[in-house]
Every structure is written in C-alpha cells, then in structure tokens.
Amino acid sequence: MSTDFWSPLKLSIEIAFVSGIIVIVAGILFGKWMAKRKFKGKLFLETVLLLPLVLPPTVVGFLLIIIFGKNSVLGSLITWLFNQPVMFTWWAAVIASTVVAFPLMYQSAKTGFEAVDEDIENAARVDGANEWQVFFFISIPLALKAIVAGGILSFTRALGEFGATLMFAGNLPGKTQTTPLAIYMAIESGNMSLAWSWVICMIGISFLMLLSVHLLKA
Q: Where does it localize (predicted)?
C-alpha cells in the first residue's frame, strides 16, 4: 500500500500514544487524589473532569480554540515561547485527544483506587513507608487492573478522536490528518475502497483493544 495510506494510521497511533501517556499520568494522580478524599466542591470538580465525556466534540474543539487561540492569554504565551501558535499543529491534535480521553482514564483509576483496602495502606505506613512509597508500591499495584483497563480505553478513544481534532488541529495531510479525518475525506471524495481499508484497520485495532480489556477483567 502507498505511503498515503499508512501516514494517517501512523499519525493516529503516534498521537494516541503520546496523549495516552499524558492521560495515564494525569488520570492516576487525579484518580488517587479524588478516590477517598472529601472536601467542599468535590462534586463540582469531578463533574468538570468528566464533562468532556458527554460534551459534543465540536464543543470541546470550540473551547480549545478559545483557551489556546492566538487571542487568548495562554495562546499568546505559547506563541511567544515557541514562536508559533499551537493551533493546527501536531500538538494541537495531542491536546484534543488528551482532553476527550482523560475522563475514561480518570474514572477507571478512581474506581481502582477506591477499591484498595485502606488497612493495607495504613499497615505500610505503620511499617515506616512514606506517602509516595505507599502510592507506588501499595496503591498502584492493587489498582493496576483498573489502571491498565483505563489506559487501554483512553488510547482507543484518543485513536478515534474526530470532531475536536478537526476544529482545533485541522485536517493537514501528514501533519494533523488522523485516520478518522482521512476516512471522512475519502468518503467525501468518493474513494470508498480507501475509506473501507482505513475503517477495517480502525475496527481491528479497536476490537483488539476492547478484547484485551475484557481479558484483563476476566
């Protein structure tokens, strides 16, 4: 197959991989922090963290443009630091994928940490372990299945991101044109055989990812 066929697939996997790493780290930290902690405003904060899960992708893309656009404070700072805006770049696609995939990882990690027996953590503290040691050697191993499942689901979600990426990162072949965008363009141009090839690849990858989650929980 031609390079044009593999380019969107390669780009999608690269973007999903990078955003997956970001999401896993952020999801573990937020999930652990929110798991058994009670404070005023927790419900509001958790709702905000989960909001991208239910918002239309176009709304997420619009908000990213407002936050990172060249007229925003953050957008202007990025332009000043890197001498170019973040919009319509590879990193814009990573940001869009990260935002939409984060709720899946956060919810899974939080559920895993909530299931950890506090008596085991407290026993480690009594034996002299500090909070970071308890976190890395007790909490994470005991919640590992949920964390891995969340990571796989987040990667799969990032792989299939379309709406927010189109609005925030654009559809630039070889730069921001991921497989979902390439499928859309192939259908628009009437190239159904190419569209079907990409669709089959995406179904295959997604099927294997979901199957691995079910096998993990078995």
A: Cell membrane
